Amino acid sequence: MQITGETVGEVKAVADMHQRKAEMARHSDAFIALPGGYGTLEELLEVITWAQLGIHDKPVGLLNVDGYYNSLLSFIDKAVEEDFISPSARHIIVSAPTARELMKKLEEYFPRHEGVASKLSWETEQLGYTPKCELSR
């Protein structure tokens, strides 16, 4: 268990990585990915997929510092062009080069995509929340 400083907030022990991600998703208002490696990409793509499946409708943001995520965004645009991702699902992701710009976009976010499946009750129950999109202000 990693704990640093006194500003960590609530610490909750979980059984495994899936439960950790489910708990984070349940308690979040939005998802923001900073530049990172495999773990960041895995978690990012999972919450994007959950949005595509209709499990949540929370905004997913990329803090695209110095164009870090440009190649990933180009890859996603290529997948849209090749009909692997629907054009409306492309709007699941919002990105900006600064935290201020990204927060503004996240606050203005409105889901424009249609889930590829109806609400997946088994996953929604597992995550423990009902879909809604509202950032705490």
Automatic annotation (TrEMBL):
<comment type="similarity">
    <text>Belongs to the LOG family.</text>
</comment>
<dbReference type="GO" id="GO:0005829">
    <property type="term" value="C:cytosol"/>
</dbReference>
<comment type="function">
    <text>Cytokinin-activating enzyme working in the direct activation pathway. Phosphoribohydrolase that converts inactive cytokinin nucleotides to the biologically active free-base forms.</text>
</comment>
<dbReference type="Pfam" id="PF03641">
    <property type="entry name" value="Lysine_decarbox"/>
</dbReference>
<protein>
    <recommendedName>
        <fullName>Cytokinin riboside 5'-monophosphate phosphoribohydrolase</fullName>
        <ecNumber>3.2.2.n1</ecNumber>
    </recommendedName>
</protein>
<dbReference type="InterPro" id="IPR031100">
    <property type="entry name" value="LOG_fam"/>
</dbReference>
<dbReference type="GO" id="GO:0016799">
    <property type="term" value="F:hydrolase activity, hydrolyzing N-glycosyl compounds"/>
</dbReference>
<dbReference type="InterPro" id="IPR005269">
    <property type="entry name" value="LOG"/>
</dbReference>
<dbReference type="GO" id="GO:0005634">
    <property type="term" value="C:nucleus"/>
</dbReference>
<keyword id="KW-0203">Cytokinin biosynthesis</keyword>
<dbReference type="GO" id="GO:0009691">
    <property type="term" value="P:cytokinin biosynthetic process"/>
</dbReference>
<keyword id="KW-0378">Hydrolase</keyword>
